[in-house]
Amino acid sequence: MLNNHYTLCLVFLTVVIAGERYLAICHPATYRNATITWTVSKRVLVYVVPVVVISILLNIPKFFETEIHYDAVIPANQIDQYLPWLMNTNTTVFPLDLIQNISILAGPLESSVTYKIRMEISWLRTHHLYVKIYTLVTRLLFTGLFPMIALIYFNTKIFRGIRKQPRQPSRQPRGRSANPSFPQRCSTVSHASATSC
Predict the structure, then answer these.
(1) Looking at the whole model, is its pTM more than 0.70?
(2) Domain map of the chain by residue range?
């Protein structure tokens, strides 16, 4: 269940980061005002909290897909005490609600009885509408289609915004570089030493 939550958070955070880059490149004045007026922690909260909330809301049905059942494991030497109520079965593992009902009739369970926990698929997970609507359509839209469309939009706008910006001219003078290379420095030093002698 948590891996679905993490997956949605990662997908949405990727879209949010692309949206912030889009604002920085295509709307620099708006982005600059936001960075000046909001602290970094406030901006992080504005981006992360909605992502986590939406992810939790979309994953609420996942918590109802399984059911937890408790089984009582009766030791073999105590099974005779409960046999009239257990219908002469050969197993020593029984559903807890059955054992609790029997213990009312046959007396309290011994302390040597242990319990096992098992998980089963609930009726919700096998319902055809749940499988079609939530598992297929909702997951496809929110983890695939909507994020992909948003990323294509943001990255296309970013690419076009970068191409529209004028190129910055180089500040280095043409011809001789401002920072001479090692051979140029060596020849300058050797020329200066030859003329000083």
Answers:
(1) no
(2) 2-64+124-164, 68-121
